[in-house]
Design a protein that fits this description.
The protein is α+β, with helices and mostly antiparallel strands. The chain is built from 6 helices and 11 strands. About 20% of the residues lie in helices and about 30% in strands. The strands form 3 sheets. Strands 2-3-4-1-5 form a 5-stranded antiparallel beta sheet, with helices on one face. Strands 6-8-7 form a 3-stranded antiparallel beta sheet, with no helix packed on it. It has a 3-stranded antiparallel beta sheet with strand order 9-11-10.
Length: about 230
C-alpha cells in the first residue's frame, strides 16, 4: 500500500437525528451543499477554536481534524449538543489519506494542495506539511488558534459561507467581510527564528507561521491567491 496516510489527522463521526442541522448551525461553512468543505468552529468573538474538513458518509458527517485536538473538539461539540440524540465520537477505523495527485477529491481549500480521501489507516505519508506551508496554507490550533477567522485567510480558502445563515461567531465575521478590511493575515515566512508575531516555527523546514499586518508582510511567502485578495482590499 502506498504511503498516503496523514498520521496527524483523525476522524470524528457525528450521527443521529438531524445531525446536518446541528452542524449547520455551528460551523462556518455550508454543510447542506456539496462536500467536502473546509470549516471551523469559532468563539462567539469570531476567533478560531478548531478547523476541519467536513465529509458526508451516508447519513453521518465526518470531521477530518487535527488528531491532537480531536478529543477537545468532541468535548466542545458535546456542549452544544445539549439533549439532542446525536452521537459524537472518534472513528479509528478511518484515516485521512493524501497524495499530490491521483485518487480522491481535490482539497476544498486549494486544488494545488492535492487530493484527499478517507480509508483504512496505512503507511504514513511524507511531505504534506512542507507542501501546504509552501502554498501559504495554515491549519491546526498551533497556527490558527485564537485568530480571527478571516485573518486565517478563510474567505480566500473557501472556509466560510456568508449566505448559509447563522453560525457561532458569525456576527463579527460578517462585519469584517462587509467592511472589506482584514488588516492582519497569517502568513508563512522562511525563517527559523521566532519573533513577536510568530505562531510556530518548523526548524526542520526552515519555515514559520506568523500573524502580520498586511502593510508589513516583508519576506513572507505570498502565493497568488493571497496576493490577489490583499490587492483588492481598500
Amino acid at each position: 500500500m502506498a504511503a498516503t496516510t496523514l498520521s496527524n489527522r483523525a476522524i470524528v463521526r457525528l450521527s443521529g437525528e438531524d445531525v446536518q442541522g446541528f452542524l449547520q448551525g455551528l460551523v462556518t461553512s455550508d454543510v447542506a451543499g456539496p462536500l467536502p468543505v473546509w470549516a471551523a468552529l469559532l468563539t462567539p468573538q469570531g476567533k478560531c477554536q478548531f478547523d476541519f474538513i467536513v465529509w458526508r458518509n451516508e447519513g453521518d458527517f465526518l470531521l477530518d481534524c487535527e488528531a491532537d485536538s480531536a478529543g477537545d473538539l468532541i468535548k466542545r461539540l458535546s456542549l452544544y449538543r445539549l439533549r439532542r440524540p446525536i452521537g459524537i465520537e472518534r472513528d479509528a477505523t478511518l484515516a485521512v489519506h493524501w497524495a499530490p495527485g491521483g485518487p480522491g477529491t481535490p482539497d476544498p481549500r486549494l486544488p494545488e494542495l492535492g487530493h484527499r480521501w478517507l480509508a483504512e489507516p496505512g503507511e504514513s505519508a511524507g511531505g504534506w506539511q512542507e507542501h501546504r506551508l509552501r502554498l501559504g496554507v495554515c491549519e491546526g490550533r498551533a497556527e490558527l488558534g485564537d485568530i480571527l477567522w478571516l485573518e486565517c485567510n478563510a474567505a480566500e480558502l473557501n472556509g466560510v459561507s456568508f449566505t448559509k445563515g447563522c453560525f457561532v461567531g458569525q456576527e463579527n465575521t460578517a462585519r469584517m467581510n462587509w467592511r472589506q478590511k482584514v488588516n492582519r493575515r497569517l502568513v508563512v515566512v522562511p525563517t527559523t527564528a521566532a519573533g513577536a508575531r510568530t505562531r510556530v516555527v518548523y526548524e526542520d523546514l526552515g519555515l514559520a507561521v506568523e500573524h502580520r499586518r498586511t502593510d508589513d508582510l516583508g519576506d513572507a511567502i505570498i502565493p497568488a491567491w493571497l496576493k490577489a485578495a490583499i490587492a483588492q482590499q481598500p
